[in-house]
Amino acid sequence: MFWTIRQRYGYLCLRTAFSIGGLVGLSLTSFGSRALADDTTKQASSPTITSEGSSVTLRSLVDHDPGEVYIYVGGAFPAGTTPVAFGYFFGSAFDDNNTGYITPLLFARTPGENDSVIYTVVGIGEGYQVHLSSSAQMIPFKVVEGFKVTQDDTFTFGYINAMVDSSGTPVETSYGTVTYDYPADGGEGVGGTGTNNDWGATGTPPAAPVVALGTTFGPARSGASYTFYPQIRTYSAEVVGVVVGQ
Q: What is the third-level CATH fold of 53-241?
């Protein structure tokens, strides 16, 4: 049986193994403990798991441009979500690049010019070198600059195929490390009702985009710093987060 990233995440939370999933599980435990410690007059509800993005399965294509940015535009996190794990499928490679880079990013959605939507970088995650695999993989989503918790329901996620410094400038880039489909898949995203599988992707060779806090991305004529390809795609990536209720 193939498990989704979310199912695997829940299983590993129970196991609390010393692996990426185990680290995520330990994070879930710590969030619950913190919620109880912070409010002794009320009983905190149990942390809940949420996910956004598209199913982490092998798709037919992989990107040829190094260091590009990819943003999930088909849904958003609930307010108060702490992203903890980034799931992806790096199942095929361009030009035999069996390794590459992923730095997860947080974006906030705001109105742009000409009735468009733009996406502003509000969180930069820790970057990782990743490796080709025939299975779905996970890396921690650890924000090192910017917002660590979503402030409202306009936050979504994305990633850059690069390692970046604290100012968001790429220092190492790679070809695509997540498979995709074009045209975009139909149906709901992993977030369920009200979501879809639409992703935006930049195409800016030879220079990779800078993902400094406040940098904007969007379609052509949106007024964004960097623009998407006209074609909407679906990438094999999702982010799992924890929401702690009061």
A: Jelly Rolls (2.60.120)
Could you report the per-residue pLDDT of 43-97, keeping only the tens digit for each?
A: 456 789 999 999 999 999 999 999 999 999 999 999 999 999 999 999 998 888 8
What is the pLDDT of the chain when averaged over all its residues?
A: 86
Residues β-bridged to residue 235: 180
Contact between 39 and 246 (Cβ < 8 Å): yes
DSSP SS3 for 137: strand
Instruction: Determine which helix (DSSP H) or strand (DSSP E) holds 139, and give its type and residue range.
Output: strand 137-140
Length of the chain: 246
Cα 186-190-194 angle, rounded to 5 deg: 70
Nearest to 233 by CA among 207, 198, 196: 198
Q: What is the pLDDT of residue 27?
A: 46
How far apart (Å, rounded) are the C-alpha atoms in residues 148 and 23? 17
Give the start-to-end residue ranges of the domains of the chain: 53-241
Contact 85, 24 (CB under 8 A): yes
